[in-house]
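Table S2 (text version). Query chain:
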Amino acid sequence: MTISMYQASVPRLANVLGNLSGILDKAQAHVDAGYVDAATLMQYRLAPDMYPLFKQVQIACDKARSVVARLAGMEVPYYPDDEKTFAELKERIARTVEFIRSVPPERIDGTEDDEIVLPVTGKETRYKGMQLLLGHSMPNVYFHAVTAYNILRQNGVPIGKRDFLGNP
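Corresponding structure-token output:
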């Protein structure tokens, strides 16, 4: 049995982002219970040179939206980075999932060997579709989602592996 580019991308990306949204619900509940201040949590970083929580969520969404659009030969939808609350971050996730699910499988399937050029750290980087998806974009989405998870866990939000994995 083979797996298509669509199957390897959209359902997996929608799943990890949906799980991230659920984790943000638990973070909001932790804030509402008075355990931590929301603004402090949104600005928390694991290390001084890492992005804060809100940016981790934004980038996870950006990478998911970008890879699906690029594989489908579409313009990448732009979302301003202006979220200040968990509800706003959840809305960004919802818009991202809505967009990626709106792209029909036939726009993505068969793009394994398509050349896609991205500006990466100021220089053109060429990828084949499969390489972009599995070697660049998926690892980035998971990296930023797990970093958001780790920030919340570090701050006492009662989440565990099952929250991150959800129902794969």
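Notes on Table S2: The domain at 5-162 is CATH 1.20.120.450 (Four Helix Bundle (Hemerythrin (Met), subunit A)). The chain has one domain: 5-162.
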